[in-house]
C-alpha cells in the first residue's frame, strides 16, 4: 500500500492526511509541536472558549460550510450576532459604511457615507468616485493599486486599514487578497460582483474542527513532537528524517510555513514565503467598566498605534455569556518587549478607545511567529512555477501558498493529495 508522509499537523496537513487516508493510502503525520491544529487554538477560560487563532470560518468559501456538514458540525455552528464594525480614525470610532468590499467602495453611495462619517474628506470621495475612469486593469500589489486607482485618501483612510486587519499588511497581491477582483476592469466594478462573506463559529470553540478532522483520519499515524529535518531519496522512495527516526514514503506533502519548509526543500527560493508576526491579547473587564456600548463586532484602526484590530467578543458572540465585557486585540509585528508590558500597553490603548472606567481584570497574551503570509505581486504565478519545479510526488500546501482562511487551507491540502494521485496513478494507490 502506498504511503504518504505529511509534514505539519495544521489545517492543511490534516486535510491532506484525511484525503489520502480516504483514498486508501497509509499516512503518517509529522508535527513538530506537541499538538495538532496549527493556529487554530482554543483555550477554555472559566468555562468559556477563548480563541487564539481564527474565531470563525468563511462559510461562503468552497470547503467552508460543506466541510462542517461532512464532519457533523453544521448543527454546532453559530453566526456572528452582528456584522457592523467601526474604523478608528482621528481618535474617534466611525461606522464603516455599507457598500464596500474590504474597504473598496462599490459605488458613490459608499464614498458619500464615508465622508458623512468623517472618514473621508469631500475631495477624497470625489477622487475615489473617478476610479472606474482610471485606465488599465487593476493588478499587482493591493496597496499600490488602491493608491493609484482610488486616490491616496480613500486608499489609506478606508481600504488599506481593512485589508491590513485581515492580512496583517496592506501590501498583498490583489489576486490573493481579493480573487473576485482579478481580471475586473476596475476595483469598483470588481467590488460590486464580490458576494457578501458569511462567517460561522463553533459552539465550544474552533478547536472542535481540529478534533473532528483528527477523528476522521482512517488509520493515520500521528507523531507529535517530531520535527522533520531532511527528506532523503528520490521520487517514489523517500525517507523523511524526524528527530532521528526515519519514515519511508512514496510521496510527501509539506504543510508548514515556508520558512520551516526551506531547510527541507533547498529549491525553495530565498525570500519566498515571508510572514508577519503578531500578538493576540484577550482583555476581560468587570461589568460596567466600559463607557462605550458594545454595539458592533469591533473596530479596525486607521490611526497609528499598537492595535490593528479589536474584536468585541461579547457583542460578536453573545452566546458565550461571559461575566464581563470581553475584547480581543491584535498587534502586528509586536517587537521583543516582555508580554506583561505589551499587555499593559494594549490595555491602555484599548481602554482609551473604549472609555474604560477600570482596568481589565484579566489579560492574556499569545504570540505567533508566522502569523500571516505576505503575498507579493504575482504570487499565484510564483506558486505555479514552484510546484512545476518540484517532483510530482512532493507537494506544498497551506496558507503560504493557497490562502489564509481555514477553507483555503483545507482546499489546498486536499488539492495537494489530488495532484499526487494524478501523478502516481492507480498502480501506486494500494
Question: How does this model look, in words?
Answer:
With 430 residues, the protein is α+β, with helices and mostly antiparallel strands. The protein has three domains: 3-41 and 207-271 and 377-428, 3-Layer(bba) Sandwich (FAD/NAD(P)-binding domain); 93-191, protoporphyrinogen ix oxidase, domain 3, CATH 1.10.3110.10; 275-373, Polyamine Oxidase, Chain A, domain 2 (Alpha-Beta Complex). The chain contains 15 helices and 22 strands. It has helices spanning 11-22, 65-70, 108-116, 122-129, 142-150, 152-167, 174-177, 187-193, 207-215, 258-261, 313-316, 339-353, 379-389, 399-402, 406-424, and strands spanning 3-7, 26-31, 42-45, 48-51, 57-58, 77-78, 86-89, 92-95, 100-101, 104-105, 199-202, 221-224, 228-234, 237-242, 245-249, 251-254, 275-284, 298-301, 307-312, 326-332, 362-373, 394-396. A seven-stranded mixed β-sheet has the order 8-7-18-19-20-17-21, with helices on both faces. It has a five-stranded parallel β-sheet with strand order 12-2-1-16-22, with helices on one face. Strands 5-11-6 form a three-stranded antiparallel β-sheet, with no helix packed on it. Helix 1 packs parallel to helix 15, helix 3 (108-116) packs antiparallel against helix 4 and helix 5 packs antiparallel against helix 6. The longest helix is centred in the last third of the chain and has 19 residues, at 406-424. The chain is globular, with a radius of gyration of 22 Å. The model has no long low-confidence stretch (mean pLDDT 93).
Please outline what is shown here.
The chain has 430 residues and is of the alpha+beta class. The protein has helices at 11-22, 65-70, 108-116, 122-129, 142-150, 152-167, 174-177, 187-193, 207-215, 258-261, 313-316, 339-353, 379-389, 399-402, 406-424, and strands spanning 3-7, 26-31, 42-45, 48-51, 57-58, 77-78, 86-89, 92-95, 100-101, 104-105, 199-202, 221-224, 228-234, 237-242, 245-249, 251-254, 275-284, 298-301, 307-312, 326-332, 362-373, 394-396. The protein contains 15 helices and 22 strands.
